[in-house]
């Protein structure tokens, strides 16, 4: 580590310099004045230019497994979306509820939560929200409660698996936790949180929602099958998605990383998609697929990883880890609760991705005080529950929230920061309190 920090200018303290770069980067990201990917990349550049890291060391900080997994899943969803399968699911959900608004509100939340556990949150809301807006229009009911509920459901459902939420992808990749580890340790509490959340949303909005008989008839008359535009692509997408998810489940036995599985799946589905088209259409499809990848998110991650790695090399994180362990008297449960609540409150204020990226090395550096990597596993669950559920607290808490707000605003369903927070923050605290109880029962009592 010494070699990376010896180049710093004017003999300044690398810890202070790297911390300043981190704070400035975060402050500008939170101001939302400039695109967050640009700021993260400039912060990363600053770490190298001022000499906290050299380029080789900076690249070591990038978690390619996370980037590969995200990119692969984005490609898979981009192609399978063209078959119309996600619209089909939403129409079916509405009809299953006999076009009753409260029932649809409940079923769309459950659908969103399940999809979020299997795809990433942003992808899920990009698929579900447009269909929801169409159904609300047909039923002539306000769309805001539906979109609000879908933000919550996507962040809650995403917490249950390794691939559901970017913070989990980060935690899994850097703490060596498998797809199955997340399912076994987090899904039980997530089911409880989801049920409680759905009940609260029903109490606030669902029970007072009514639709006319004519509006209901319109929805019941929709032909779900009509939304499938390409049956061949649908079959190929389903097969590849199933293979990829099975791959995640058996990743450890196969000695493969999630990124490899997602990328190979993405490449396979692209091959199928291009096989039957002539060269011109094939070229168009490839361009279309690659342009659907959220490159802003990918480059945001790259910049962020380097900034956080600079802070790690500068020595701030190990200092903080020691302080936190000392403050909690080296008590595992107290440390766990501190991580849970701090993560939840802070993830509501800053985007949960940079927050988790900063916390991971911090928790890793606590392992020696608690008896090694195996002993600190419950702390990873505290971080995941706090960061993923805390993301619901405000509009800037998670990427899915901003995505839904953006689509809502374009479709004349305004999302005001304060209105959202007044409903969301107390509901988020309830879900974290349930997690606290679960952690106590399962790991700490």
Q: Cα-atom Rg, whole angstroms?
A: 22 Å
C-alpha termini separation: 39 Å
The proportion of residues in beta strands is under 5%
Domain unit count? 1
Which parts are unreliable, with pLDDT below 50 for 5 consecutive residues or more? 1-6
Helical residues, percent:
over 70%
N-to-C SSE series?
A: HHHHHHHHHHHHHHHHHHHHHHHH
Instruction: Let me know the average pLDDT.
Output: 89
For the sheet with most strands, the description reads: none
Shape: globular
What's the count of strands?
A: 0
Number of helices: 24
Secondary-structure class: mainly alpha
Structural commentary:
The chain is an all-alpha fold and 445 residues long. It has one domain. Helices cover 78% and strands 0% of the residues. It is globular, with a radius of gyration of 22 Å. It starts with a helix and ends with a helix.
Short précis:
This protein is an all-alpha fold and 445 residues long. It has one domain (2-60, 84-228, 294-444). The protein contains 24 helices and no strands.
Q: How does the SSE layout of this entry go?
A:
Blueprint: H1 2-5, H2 14-31, H3 36-49, H4 55-60, H5 64-81, H6 85-96, H7 101-118, H8 121-139, H9 144-158, H10 166-175, H11 179-204, H12 213-221, H13 231-249, H14 251-254, H15 258-275, H16 279-292, H17 295-314, H18 316-327, H19 332-349, H20 352-364, H21 367-370, H22 377-390, H23 399-410, H24 417-444
